[in-house]
From TrEMBL:
Keywords: Glycosyltransferase, Transferase. It catalyses: 7-deoxyloganetate + UDP-alpha-D-glucose = 7-deoxyloganate + UDP + H(+). Gene3D superfamilies: Glycogen Phosphorylase B. One of its GO terms (molecular function) is 7-deoxyloganetic acid glucosyltransferase activity. It comes from the Eukaryota. InterPro entries: UDP_glucos_trans, UDP_glycos_trans_CS. It comes from Nelumbo nucifera. GO terms for cellular component: cytoplasm. Belongs to the UDP-glycosyltransferase family. Signal peptide: none annotated. This is Glycosyltransferase. Its EC number is 2.4.1.-.
Length: 483
């Protein structure tokens, strides 16, 4: 006998409208849809337009009868940048706009129907804690999904302890000074490695206060999901579990999704908010094994003209072929942008390939790629780990500073180049990864890649945790409906 519609959980997925967050939460939504749940993915209207324009999400998710997209305004004008300094305005506007709308939509059963029950569980981005207050009033359990690393989450969680101990704000300019009040990181963490917002001299800084408050609020949620795996961040996960005991590690998400989808299903597609240029794959096909440096600084980082040129000179002087992603909005200031990009393309035509956006998972999996010069965003870091590609880390902001420290000092999967942008340093580090330390780093990267593959395989920790998450969502929904 088929279960009645009320017996099937209806999960509302609520992401922050940023590329890395959308990417992870769409993958999570697809995994939940595989369990036969009803899933409503609540996007901002702005983000949904981009997804419809650059991806095939509509046709891809059509294979899951219980899945559907819904939209909500973010309260900002159409031409607002929604990035850089505009991020704070985006979060402020979302909070003002979303709370009353979310409450009204849940109360009115906006997303229910004859075949779809009312929302019985919310999975919200972990920096949208306002959803807890709305959901509790309506007796709906809320699970947080933090799209950053466990080490970054734990560092934010420990900020009040750092303030109490006088380790922040910094008393001087010595960024190599050890940080000793983050349990589990006492032996290697420095000021330079703390999340970017910790560098402020003002403890009332809005970004710092926002991130710390949102992280502490995680303890109010019914559970916490992290996109990581036990063999990668086990010691830090033990620290987090002392405060958030119901914790599900289900990463690397992109790999777990691939293992869960049957061979007969369409291949996993992009969730990119930029148009991917797949011609770079043909270019990689012509290159020798592990000979190419892949360069990408993610979807939010911006650079000055001088920084771009320092990287360009360092890459060219290394003598290695490179594939470089240069977004149209990568340069912080527009003066001379067209001339710079023309010079870069012309100056590297024989040895390099430049695209505005690349199919990153496919690029990292390509046998020609031997190193990844990255901003150390968590999605990029996990994708590189799973592909077994050593990294050169140039973190930009937020969690990226601590991710890069773990890559270099804890996991031994690459080099950390934070806070420097010098052509000689770029050249040196490229040669270290691609020549001098190549065998050593490849061995470390391949060992960690093996552990990542085991975690998402049958009986692996992430695979089992996904099963437990699905079972617990069912139980939460049953308990909520019976009270």
């Amino acid at each position: 006998m088929e279960p009645s519609p009320v017996a099937v959980p209806h999960v509302l997925v609520l992401p922050i409208p940023l590329q890395g967050h959308i990417n992870s939460m769409l993958k999570l939504s697809e995994l939940i849809s595989l369990a036969g749940f009803h899933v409503t993915f609540l996007n901002t209207e702005h983000i949904h337009r981009l997804l419809l324009h650059f991806t095939n999400v509509t046709s891809r998710f059509a294979r899951w009868p219980g899945f559907h997209f819904a939209t909500i305004p973010d309260g900002l004008p159409f031409d607002h940048p929604r990035s850089g300094p505009g991020l704070v305005e985006l979060f402020d506007s979302l909070k003002i706009t979303s709370i009353p709308l979310l409450r009204e939509m849940l109360v009115s059963n906006r997303w229910g129907s004859d075949v779809r029950p009312p929302v019985t569980c919310i999975i919200a981005d972990g920096i949208m804690s306002f959803t807890i207050d709305v959901a509790r009033d309506l007796n709906i359990p809320t699970i947080f999904f933090r799209t950053v690393s466990a080490c970054s989450f734990w560092a934010y969680f420990c900020v009040p302890k750092l303030i109490e101990a006088g380790e922040i704000p910094f008393r001087d300019a010595d960024m190599d000074c050890p940080i000793t009040c983050v349990p589990g990181m006492e032996n290697f963490l420095r000021r330079a490695d703390l999340p970017g917002s910790c560098r402020t001299n003002n403890l009332g800084d809005r970004t710092l206060q926002f991130l710390v408050t949102e992280t502490i609020n995680t303890t109010r949620a019914s559970a916490l999901i992290l996109n990581t795996f036990e063999d990668l961040e086990g010691p830090i996960l033990c620290q987090i579990r002392s405060h958030c005991p119901r914790l599900y590690t289900i990463g690397p998400l992109h790999a777990l999704l691939k293992t869960q989808i049957s061979d007969s299903s369409p291949s996993v597609s992009s969730n990119s908010l930029w148009e991917e240029n797949k011609s770079c794959i043909r270019w990689l096909d012509s290159k020798p094994l592990r000979s190419v440096v892949y360069v990408s600084f993610g979807s939010l980082a911006t650079m000055t003209r001088d920084e771009v040129l320092e990287f360009w000179h360092g890459l060219v002087n290394s003598g290695k072929p490179f594939l470089w992603v240069i977004r149209p909005d990568l340069l912080a200031r527009k003066e001379g942008e067209d001339q710079i990009l023309t010079e870069l393309v012309e100056g590297t035509r024989e040895r390099a390939y430049i695209v505005e956006w690349a199919p990153q998972e496919e690029v990292l999996a390509h046998p020609a790629v031997g190193g990844f010069l990255t901003h150390s965003g968590w999605n990029s870091t996990l994708e590189s780990i799973y592909a077994g590609v050593p990294m050169i880390c140039w973190p930009y902001f937020a969690d990226q500073q601590i991710n890069s420290r773990f890559v270099s000092e804890v996991w031994k999967l690459g080099l950390d180049m934070k806070d420097t942008c010098d052509r000689l340093k770029v050249e040196l580090m490229v040669k270290e990864v691609m020549e001098r330390k190549r065998d050593e780093m490849i061995k470390s990267a391949e060992n960690m890649a093996k552990l990542a593959r085991m975690s998402v395989g049958e009986g692996g920790s992430s695979s089992c945790n996904l099963d437990k998450l699905i079972q617990d969502i069912r139980s939460m929904c049953v308990r909520a409906s019976s009270t």
